[in-house]
Model the fold of this input.
Amino acid sequence: MGAELPARTFMQAPLALISLLAGVSAWLIGASVWWLIAGLVIGSVVPFTFIAIMPTNHKLLAPGRNLASAKTRALLERWAHFMRREVF
Done:
């Protein structure tokens, strides 16, 4: 799983942005407003990832982090909370 993570990371943002552009474009050429809403919802994961998830990931993956510390546990709980919000 760890080796695949960077590849997935680099694919998610461009695909979300392409979906955003496709949804907005479809709406602009006459599709229903649901295309716009869908594009905006999918595109919203990009700023959410950069603002909320990425800083937490960087802290968790920092070299020398004590994996048994209370701070690490708190970060993992925060990360899990973000993942539940993003997935559901």
